[in-house]
Amino acid sequence: MDTEDLRTFLTVAEELHFGRAAERLHVAQPYLSRKIRSLEEDLGAPLFQRTTRRVELTPAGATLIGHARAIVASESETRASVTAAHEGRSGRVRIAFAGPSAHVAVGQLARAVREEHPLIDLELLPGHYGSTAVTALLRNETDLALARFAEPPPGVNSRRVDHDRFVIAVPSSHRLAGKDTIAVSDLRDEPLVAFPESHGSVVRAILVAQCQAAGFVPRFVQTSPDSWTCVALVAAGVGLHFTTTQAVAYLPLEGVRIREITDPLPTISVFLVWREGPAEHSALHRVLATSEQVLATAHLPA
Question: Is residue 256 helix, strand or coil?
């Protein structure tokens, strides 16, 4: 049962006149009649009752109308879906990011993608930091990532979209909370709250390097999977947390003081990262094009 035969049948069923149906389809009437006979033979039932004056649907023909419309519509939808996927107008793009520090950027990108490419499903995958975000990309577990690095990560494409600044979250009752700024050396022997080393966080790695340069090893007393919990632990007096301004910008800070750091620190940048060589018409390619509109390229300060 060919969909083209079903379209022919539906046209005749609407017109109830073989001549007018042939004109609509731009075919000769004998050809149309052969198509209908072929379909009747295939189904094993007459679809039309023909007289010299009129054409009527048989019970079998009336029954076929609903099924024929569904089959024709399904075929059209299938063709449209396949074409959209081939052209990158539909599909799934998985974007990994850390947590609160990326929420504004991810939200802006998600809204723009939804408005410009409603058939693309932007799947949000939080909890990816630094090197682990790159590893997930290379393993094809994600398609795109927002992550912080001091330098563009090797082995992947990247675009710098923002800068961030290091700060320290301190319990409001802590002795350092009364200081306007804090030096890295002030962290000697202080209890620290941080992400697990397995997260691959560049922020933690920079803290360790800065402490070692100052002549001591940081004392991590508690690890936490995300910034929310880290800040909650700070508020509870468990320890201090080396973080960035964007990571704490939208978190509840009751019982917490955010202090600037006096030491010169490496520039920390937010990068949009993806695997090399996206197909020209892929959904990822379209999301990347949209990202250039809402997440402008950021240049290193002079």
Answer: strand
Is the pTM for the entire model greater than 0.85?
Answer: no
Q: Which domains does the chain have, with CATH numbers?
A: 3-86 (1.10.10.10), 91-159+272-294 (3.40.190.10), 164-261 (3.40.190.10)
Beta bridge partners of 95: 124, 144
Amino acid 160 reads: R
Q: What is the pLDDT of residues 193-220, one digit of tens each?
A: 999 999 889 999 999 999 999 999 999 9
Rounded distance, CA 37 to CA 44, Å?
Answer: 10
Residue whose tokens read 């793009």: 93
SS3 79: helix
Query: Do 253 and 168 contact (CB within 8 A), yes or no?
Result: no
CB 2 within 8 A of CB 41: no
DSSP 8-state class, residue 13:
H
Cα gap 10→32, rounded to integer Å: 12
